[in-house]
Amino acid sequence: MQATDTAARLSEAGVTHAAHEGASVGDYVQLLKPRVMSLVVFTGVAGLVLAPGHIHPVLAVVAVLCIAVGAGASGAINMWYDRDIDAVMSRTRGRPLPTGRMAPGEALGFGAVLAAGAIMVMGLAVNWAAAALLSLTIAFYVFVYTMWLKRRTPQNIVIGGAAGAFPPMIGWAAVTGDISLVSLALFAIIFMWTPPHFWALSLYRSEDYERAGVPMMPVVAGRRETQCQILLYSALLVPVTLLPWWLGAVGTAYAVGTLLLGAVLVMLAVRVYRDHEGSGGDRAAKALFAYSILYLFVVFALLMVDRALGFGPAGAAVTS
Amino acid sequence: MSEQPQPDQLAKRRRTKNLALAGVLLVMVVLFYIITVVRMGGN
């Protein structure tokens, strides 16, 4: 069924299988979704920095590399599976598979080899707890999000968002070899951040998703419901970002900083909520989407800076 | 649909891909060597 749909949609989009010879190195890099990878790597590094204990710098670099390659592999397999809907969405139709620059099997093979390699190296060089979490992340993104949820429910990015939330836990496990309350708190921050981030995007890309048949919240439940959900998740995210401070992993400087950042996020979410008609080309939704990326970077940067400068009661408490 | 690349363009892309792959393999050899040294050092 998937294969038939894929062939029909690719044919509709004017893609044939005749032009598969032209994949360049850049196309392989594009398969790895480098922009998504940068956020994954950053949060993974945060997990490494925040974790109590010591890891050899070389092994820390290897762990980060494995997280990056694992994320890239997930992206490649996602592009292989979603090539039919990518071909009809303006944001994604320039990707290597919809344009016919690369054969689907090549992308799948590339992703699968990278995924297996990243998990194996993580296990052999760092530890098997981190490798298990990495494999769980890849499997969750590919099977749970991409293949199961994405085309079936508007809750796709709520549940599927867990895949993007695992990297700090992997970084943490690379140092300690286990899972702790603090690493779960880092997971929770990204998990709660994902819905408002993607729903803001889907508000001004809803036509794209509708054309592709992806049941994003604005397509299925409507604009108003999406705006309510964005506001709700943004408001819930603020107390969740305080969990690392509450657990004693970082100090008050982080708590104050993240509260200020959260206040701006909620303010932008309120602006989205008030923008009933999507006036000015959905300026409010675009502003929230752009800020949400900066927000996550700065929250994790604050966590690392606080930890590195020793503002918090680092040490005993973080081993919980 | 993307245009069919010319044979010389294809050859150039293939050569670039081969060089990139060689670079990746070389980096992996060096990386595995360093990992082995670190792991044998008791980490």
What's the short story on this structure?
The complex is a heterodimer of chains A (320) and B (43). Chain A is mainly alpha-helical. Chain A is built from 16 helices and no strands.
Describe this structure as you would to a colleague.
The complex is a heterodimer of chains A (320) and B (43). Chain A is an all-alpha fold. Chain A folds into two domains: 179 residues, Tetracycline Repressor, domain 2; 140 residues, Four Helix Bundle (Hemerythrin (Met), subunit A), CATH 1.20.120. Chain A has 16 helices and no strands. In chain A, helix 3 packs antiparallel against helix 4, helix 4 packs antiparallel against helix 6 and helix 4 packs antiparallel against helix 9. The radius of gyration of chain A is 20 Å and the shape is flat. Chain A starts with a helix and ends in an 11-residue tail after the last helix. Chain B has 43 residues and is mainly alpha-helical. Chain B has one helix and no strands. Chain B is rod-shaped, with a radius of gyration of 18 Å. The relative contact order of chain B is 0.08. The model of chain B has no long low-confidence stretch (mean pLDDT 86). Classes of the chains: A mainly alpha (320), B mainly alpha (43). Chains A and B meet through helix 4 of A and helix 1 of B.
